[in-house]
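for ur thesis appendix - Sec-independent protein translocase protein TatA. copy paste whatever u need, i formatted it the way the template wanted (i think)
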Amino acid sequence: MFGIGSTELIIIFLIILVIFGAKKLPEIGSGLGKGITNFKKAMKDQDKIGEKSSSEEDTKA
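the 3d part is after this line
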């Protein structure tokens, strides 16, 4: 995974823990999860819009 080993991931996690604190980590994780979910939903909606407009162009030609 991106050339990052387990030691590096632990160090990154510890730095994040020091910066944000233990109480904020669940909130950050929840917000990140919601953001990813919304991004995926927006990408699917964009694909549907693109398919709809391309099919309309095909019928005009």
